[in-house]
Amino acid sequence: MRGYLSPTEFRTRGRIPAQLATLLGTAVLAVFLMLSVLPDEPLVDEHYHLAQIRSINSDEFARVPYLTTPLGYHFSVALPARLLGVESLRGLRAISATWALLSLVLAWFFLLRHGASRPLLRSLQVLLCPLVWPFCFLLYTDLGALTLVLAALVAFGSRSFWTAAAIGTLALAWRQTNVFWSGLLWLMALHQAGVWQTPGALNWRSLLHRVRVRAVPALQSSWMLMLPLVVFVAFVILNQGVALGDREAHRFGQAVYPGQVFFMLLVVWLVLLPLHAANLARIAELLGRRPWVGLLIAALGVLYLTTFSVTHFYNLGLPEFHLRNRVLGWMVDHHWFRLLAFAGMAWALLSIAVTRLKDPAGYWLYPVTILALLPVELIEQRYYIVPAILFLLFRQPRGATVEWSVLAWFAGLSAAVTAAIASQDYFL
Question: What is the pTM of this model?
């Protein structure tokens, strides 16, 4: 992204050692705290990941059939575990958390490199975000995948497109859907090269001029960012689908599921509530200046009320245990709750609309996120981790009061989630 510091400014910027020490110290304390709180037995999908990691380190390697992803994450935990002689669940969680918490350092590095204000505070927001926090310390693929996405973003921000492409390709071995975030980087590169700028006069001559002067050089300098997309397409053709295992439960692209996007808006409303509250004045100004926005929200509400449904069988089971499924059940069974939920969705959508991003290229995050979610039938809050963190990194910060309020809100929500998981009575 534009606006990063020069190498001299970066090397000489004050407080870097202290900030890095604070981050690393916080990460170590978080690992010790969570490993002492979490149950000493696998939770939900940890059963499959634990079995696969132990299978890699056994004499008889076999792929766990219920795993939908390649085994990049599992090897990243299993190989250090073999080297260190670690076999216990707690030890494997610690190794996994080490990879996951690299995302915290990468987020801080990205913010610092691009001259963002309060990089330490905003990095701690990434750590304590309730979408992120619990899965940092469990055997799940999501945070390892986030680390690779942020590593690609850092390389991209330094204009190291080959490195970003290589990391993006590697990230497919953690989660196949990481292809969308590689696509985002490519679109951002084209945007920064001016490919999408509107010509003064819309005619064939101006369009041909844009292709010759802007599009061709942009493609020549950024084509390597398409390599993860090419690898993904080849994988889908050879695999005859996206998922490697449990295919019946993870069909991708056979239909579109707008309920996934609506639920994401509800989650974003709750998670970023202090930011939405701070945006109320901006929202009122937007609606006053452009009344047609209210009509669009009303039309979106009609679409939501007439189309929202929950069809995946994983979303229908154990609502007394999975808090996500309980909320989805309320949205389906109770019209009053469905209406109330849309109020939060509309608020979140308007708040996002008035939140300024530092680089205009970052606005490609929104259509790419929708494209990534619409083909997925299973409604799962973990699918929102990457776009939520990218939004936190791309946005222009607000005042100190708002930023500290966001951090405090994140801490409270993450504490509540931790207590629920530790009790073994609930899970997300």
Answer: 0.92
